[in-house]
Amino acid sequence: MSDERQLHEIWISGTEEPEWVKDSTDEGAQEMFIEEPESRLVEQEGIRVDDDFVVEEEIPEDELMIINMGPQHPSTHGVLRLQIELEGEIIRRTKPIIGYLHTGMEKTGEQLSFLQGPTNVTRMDYLAPLHNELAFSLAVEQLLGVEIPPRAQAIRILMTELNRITSHQVFLATAGMDIGALSMMLYGFRDREAILAFFEKTTGLRMNHNYIRPGGVAADLPDGWEADIEDIIEKVLAGVADYEDLLRHNPIWEERTVGVGIITAEEALAYGTTGPNLRATGLGWDLRKSQPYSGIEQYEFEVPVGENGDVYDRYRVRVQEITQSLGIVRQVAESMPKGDYRTEDRKVTPPPRARIDQSMEALIHHFKIFTAGFKVPEGEAYVAIESPRGELGAYLVSDGGTHPLRMHMRTPSFCNLQALPIAMSDSLIADTVATISSLDPVIGDVDR
Length: 448
What we know:
Low-confidence stretches: 7-15
Number of helices: 19
Radius of gyration: 25 Å
Distance between the termini: 52 Å
Order of helices and strands: HHEEEHHHHHEEHHHHHHHHEEEHHHH
Helix content: 40-55%
Shape: globular
Strand content: 5-15%
Number of strands: 8
Mean pLDDT: 86
Largest sheet: 3 strands, antiparallel
């Protein structure tokens, strides 16, 4: 080996790339301002806000100002960028810009087997992972044509309604923090802990559970679950009483929320808004009533609605939904059926753990189902459920193999976010944070 030192070019991050390496590093690069028309350039540079919301009034350009909010802004609840056109302190136009959190989950789902699918979709709406798993599993089961045991269905309803409560508690906590009610943030995260502890006890994880799977659920409820549910109901009800004491009829809270960020029923329907944001306008549309799933129609509950479609109504609907979900949880706990927690169809269900130690066939079956997966008949299916943010649908196409040929998720946050320019139009810039918060977007649910 020669003792002579070799000279090399060194590329330091932040400096220009040398010519010899440019061709090998531009893969996937996104360049702006290249061969774009003038109209497109002014949008990319943030000089003009262009959307499909038409302002009839002509405003001189020298009286308008464009500001960029986000994408790393704490009140956008993720990586969301807004281009806001202002006339003084009045918002004239708003353009949401998404894609900063895109992870390609739908395309990833087409590379995974149907059994692995819940592991992937549970990460989309990270505040409602069990709803993601349920929608996907119901679509797979519709293609398979399998019957789910009553106990598995009841467990699914129990877990998803508890998940709805935790999601609404996070909404109340973050909305309170955004508007200045810091005690509400402490209350929300405090009360959520009891349910997260139960999730961890049941599924092994506090989020991204992969618990609801095609064919049933991954495991039965743990010993002593009835006492845990009673404890949760008691703590959550006490927490709701605290929320009411703190926020309801609070003059500061009402001043910041009543008449702010209004979306009418017609506008909500036009933009595909669902969930509490739609029900706050006065329309009692809830898939648990209109298209019931997993036997939820056998439990009694009401659908809370608002009147004006403003920030205050969206907050009130979610508080009342916590109480209604608690009622469903209590009914499920009192009527929990006995039996298996997953289908007996051996095509989709792995053998019991004890059988693996006794039978070579069971061991091979276990190995095959977790490596190759199971085949799903050719066809397509769409199943929608009511997630904490609205209609969550899973569309699957199968060509008869073990992986989806096409997977698409209809997620509520994507549609709800479309109504943001309407809610913010002609309102004060000071109300921006309250309006965004009231729509309760989860950006992982938007970018898939």
